[in-house]
Amino acid sequence: MATPFLRSLSSNQALRSRLRAAASGSSSSNDHRNDLIKKVLFELPPRPPITRSEEDTIRHNTITAAYKLHLTRQREERQAGLSRKFRMIQKAMDELETTNKKLYNAARTKERGILFPRQIRMATDTPAVSGWQYSYSGPAKTTRKKAGKS
Predict the structure, then answer these.
(1) Residue 119 lies inside a defined structural domain of this protein
(2) How many other β-carbons are positioned within 10 Å of the β-carbon of residue 97?
(3) 121 located within any domain
(4) CB neighbours of 23 closer than 8 A, spacing ≥ 6?
(5) Cα 137 to the chain's mean position, in Å?
(6) Residues of the domain holding 29
(7) In the record, what terms sit under GO molecular function (predicted)?
(8) Residue 88, Cα to own-chain centre: how many angstroms?
(9) Pairing with 112, which of 14, 47, 82, 130 sits 20 to 30 Å away (CA)?
(10) Stretch 106-129: mean pLDDT, rounded?
(11) Does 21 lie in the same domain as 63?
């Protein structure tokens, strides 16, 4: 069995030979050369199937099953959190309906077409348009009398 290093060397040698074959073509067969270069660069050679021992297969299946279980638990926790949030929103809306019908109706209306508040000014890395205020002289200085000495 060849090591991954030797497999990569042999695939690199095969790649070089295909590139040489593509480069040696005449200029009249330009389309054929482009197709061959695309094939060499973007199509991967078929990989041999991975052979595992029985112990490795059991280990692999155990890890895969544990990962699937982990993903299932994450999905269930996320779904439980979302349903809890939805129940709380429903409870708040029911309370709003009983206390103030006008606010309840305002909360239920959907503003179509507004995806983000227009009033918010986005932070940028560039300076302000107005630039530097050259006429700024700072706050006026006032003199204080020292207290305690007479």
Answers:
(1) no
(2) 14
(3) no
(4) 33
(5) 48
(6) 10-48
(7) structural constituent of ribosome
(8) 29
(9) 82
(10) 71
(11) no
Looking at every residue in the chain, the average pLDDT score rounds to 80
Do 57 and 29 lie in one domain? The reply is no
Looking at the fold, whether 74 and 101 belong to one and the same domain comes out as yes
pLDDT in tens, 2-33: 555 545 555 666 666 766 666 665 445 567 88
Total tally of structural domains belonging to the chain: 2
Q: How far is CA 74 from CA 61, 65, 80, 83, 88, in A?
A: 20, 14, 10, 14, 21
Yes or no: say if 59 and 48 are a contact pair by the CB < 8 Å rule. Answer: no
- pLDDT (0 to 100) of residue 71: 98
Is residue 23 one of the residues assigned to a domain?
yes
pLDDT at 72 over 50: yes
Q: What is the pLDDT of residue 25?
A: 53
